[in-house]
């Protein structure tokens, strides 16, 4: 059974089961499948000999799921875009991907109204064809699109369904991340493939803590999928425990380092639940390794391991291209069916990061890691990429966009650290000519301009204006000295 | 340390701007100087500073919309036995 069949069968087996909840909007499996078929029929008719990507822009509306499946069933990969992305970035993504169409929830509603879905011919993608394309931060200021094929996604879904033992047509999965962030693939396809209910938290629900806890208390979530940062935020509320969410039985993390105190906090507050840690870059389809974190693992390791590789993938530690001895730190390289075929329309970037090993696609992650006791440990980045509250950010991307602003002569961005993790970004800025107004007013202007180019999570919290940067002996801005200025 | 100074010190530290001190009616959320993570961080810090239990689930965003409102909130809370 391929992934489309796996999802579509729920319209027969459990047609009235709710597939998606987002705010006050509900969508059941009958509606999801018939409407995605209607959209596929429309796309097949209007774009007959075309397999170009279709962009789907929204914020967790049920129509986004219809858009994703409708695109895939008509032979088009989809590009999930969240409305929190600035319009300039959306335009760049659409141009880079050469997307043929931009679908919004309103557009999808109007297209499916016009279409009778009874006679749809599904043009399911071949294993090597793209299913979705997710854009991530690129070091030069241009986002890059990671192409995930049907084979990649099915490799991931087969693994998690086998490992996690979800109860079919019974689970409710928490969707915290926007669909433009590949963490959401974990909850979206776990849910759809197992006949689950996807419970999306909207940005309005997340932005106010009081409303967030009320929403969680009414969610009936059984499988929690989020970044560890989000769980940390929730743990700040003392009533966040098994009484608030009695249905919670699994906490499943990806996107950034899981701190031991977050895992132990959850095990204490939800004693009957399991906590799982996973690791993997977008280029290897969400996650490649996993481990259940119990009291024994917590007692033995700090930092926590990220686990073992899924059965059909290999995770190696290489130093200068050679396998590192056990315990020695090196670059994490992932090989297997879950590895992307590369960055869309960027053969230059693709050839730098991807290669073949023993007939398998392999990806150089740029992450440092080591093995101990058979477990992989993540040891941070080897370059200027960071994870901030689960979001992957190339520091160079923020700097390039900041440097492009008219009043900025030069800019260096430094992650401010707290408890060993990036807490926020600080920008050190040299202005061409100082405009009138206080530092705050200039900061406000820069943040506003930057918000037209970058999503909110990439905008530095602090701006420090300098006449010049401290320099290294090589004549580069001394990032270490700048970081010291933040302490 | 007086309540006002303690609140402003923590706010300045978390938001990274002294504007919170200069403009007590600054719209913290509208001006994007405080987000939900920052709010929770502030709640935890002030709860510890004043040794009173304030939890994220008790706080309406409107009550914490400006530095002045946060100062007023804690001035009321510390008076309570």
List the helices and strands and how they pair.
The complex is a heterodimer of chains A (487) and B (81).
Chain A: H1 3-8, H2 10-13, E1 18-22, E2 25-28, H3 29-46, E3 54-58, H4 62-73, E4 78-82, H5 87-97, E5 101-103, H6 105-114, E6 130-136, E7 144-149, H7 150-164, E8 172-175, H8 183-193, E9 197-200, H9 203-207, H10 209-217, E10 223-226, H11 228-235, E11 250-253, H12 260-269, E12 274-279, E13 289-292, H13 295-300, E14 308-309, E15 313-319, E16 322-323, E17 330-336, E18 342-343, H14 347-353, E19 354-357, E20 360-372, E21 375-381, E22 385-388, E23 391-394, H15 395-403, E24 408-418, E25 421-431, H16 439-451, E26 462-465, H17 479-485
Parallel strand pairs in A: 1-9, 3-4, 3-5, 8-9, 10-11, 11-12, 25-26
Antiparallel strand pairs in A: 1-2, 6-7, 7-18, 12-13, 13-14, 15-16, 15-17, 17-20, 19-20, 20-21, 22-23, 24-25
Helix pairs in contact in A: 3-4, 3-6, 4-6
Chain B: H1 3-15, H2 19-22, H3 36-49, H4 67-79
Helix pairs in contact in B: 1-3, 1-4
Question: Could you explain the architecture of this structure?
Answer:
The complex is a heterodimer of chains A (487) and B (81). With 487 residues, chain A is an alpha/beta fold. Chain A has two domains: 3-372, ANL, N-terminal domain (Rossmann fold, 3-Layer(aba) Sandwich), CATH 3.40.50.12780; 385-485, 2-Layer Sandwich (GMP Synthetase, Chain A, domain 3), CATH 3.30.300.30. Chain A is built from 17 helices and 26 strands. The longest helix of chain A has 18 residues, at 29-46. Chain A is globular. The termini of chain A are far apart. The relative contact order of chain A is 0.09. The model of chain A has no long low-confidence stretch (mean pLDDT 94). Chain B is mostly helical and 81 residues long. In chain B, α1 (3-15) packs antiparallel against α3 and α1 crosses α4 (67-79). Chain B has helices at residues 3-15, 19-22, 36-49, 67-79. Chain B has a single domain (3-79), classed as Non-ribosomal Peptide Synthetase Peptidyl Carrier Protein, Chain A. The chains are: A alpha/beta (487), B mainly alpha (81). The A-B interface holds A 206-210, 212-213, 229, 233, 236-240, 389, 424, 426, 438-440, 443-444, 447, 451, 456, 459, 461-463 and B 15-19, 22, 29, 31-32, 35-40, 43-44, 55-61.
């Amino acid at each position: 059974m391929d992934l489309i069949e796996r999802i579509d069968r729920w319209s027969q087996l459990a047609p009235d089961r709710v597939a998606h909840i987002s705010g006050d909007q509900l969508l059941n499996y009958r509606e999801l499948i018939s409407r995605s078929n209607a959209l596929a029929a429309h796309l097949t008719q209007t774009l007959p000999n075309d397999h170009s990507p279709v962009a789907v822009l929204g914020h967790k509306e049920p129509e986004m799921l219809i858009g994703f499946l409708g695109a895939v069933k008509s032979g088009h990969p989809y590009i999930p875009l969240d409305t929190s992305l600035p319009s300039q970035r959306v335009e760049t993504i659409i141009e880079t991907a050469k997307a043929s169409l931009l679908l919004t929830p309103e557009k999808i509603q109007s297209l499916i109204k016009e279409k009778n879905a009874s006679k749809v011919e599904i043009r399911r993608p071949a294993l090597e064809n793209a299913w979705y394309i997710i854009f991530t931060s690129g070091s030069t200021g241009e986002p890059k699109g990671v192409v995930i094929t049907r084979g990649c996604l099915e490799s991931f879904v087969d693994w998690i369904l086998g490992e996690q033992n979800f109860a079919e047509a019974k689970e409710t999965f928490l969707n915290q991340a926007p669909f433009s962030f590949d963490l959401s693939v974990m909850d979206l396809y776990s849910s759809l493939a197992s006949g689950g209910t996807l419970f999306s938290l909207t940005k309005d629900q997340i932005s106010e803590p009081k409303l967030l806890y009320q929403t969680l208390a009414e969610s009936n979530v059984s499988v929690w999928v989020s970044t560890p940062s989000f769980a940390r935020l929730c743990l700040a509320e003392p009533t966040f425990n098994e009484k608030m969410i009695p249905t919670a039985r699994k906490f499943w993390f990806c996107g950034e380092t899981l701190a031991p105190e977050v895992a132990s906090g959850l095990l204490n507050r939800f004693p009957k639940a399991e906590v799982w840690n996973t690791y993997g870059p977008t280029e290897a389809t969400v996650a490649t390794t996993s481990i259940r974190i119990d009291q024994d693992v917590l007692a033995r390791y700090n930092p926590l391991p990220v686990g073992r590789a899924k059965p059909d993938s290999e995770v190696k530690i290489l130093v200068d291209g050679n396998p590192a001895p056990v315990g020695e730190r090196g670059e994490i390289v992932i090989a297997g069916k879950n590895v992307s075929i590369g960055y869309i329309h960027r053969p230059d970037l693709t050839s730098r990061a991807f290669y073949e090993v023993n007939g398998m696609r392999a990806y150089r992650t740029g992450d440092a890691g080591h093995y101990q006791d058979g477990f992989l440990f993540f040891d941070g980045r080897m370059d200027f990429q960071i994870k901030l509250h689960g979001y992957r950010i190339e520091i160079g991307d923020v700097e390039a966009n900041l440097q492009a602003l008219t009043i900025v002569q030069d800019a260096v961005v430094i992650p401010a650290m707290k408890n060993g993790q990036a807490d926020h970004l600080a920008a050190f800025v040299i202005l061409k000519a100082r405009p009138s107004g206080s530092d705050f007013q200039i900061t406000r202007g820069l943040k506003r301009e930057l918000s037209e180019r970058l999503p909110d999570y990439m905008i530095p919290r602090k701006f420090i204006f300098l006449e010049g940067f401290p320099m290294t002996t090589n004549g580069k801005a001394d990032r270490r000295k700048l970081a010291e200025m933040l302490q | 340390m007086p309540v006002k100074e303690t609140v402003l010190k923590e706010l300045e530290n978390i938001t990274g701007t002294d504007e919170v001190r200069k403009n007590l009616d600054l719209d913290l959320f509208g001006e994007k100087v405080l987000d939900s993570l920052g709010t929770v961080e502030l709640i935890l810090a002030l709860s510890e500073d004043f040794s009173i239990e304030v939890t994220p689930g008790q706080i309406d965003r409107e009550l914490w919309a400006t530095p002045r409102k946060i100062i007023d909130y804690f001035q009321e809370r510390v008076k309570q036995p």
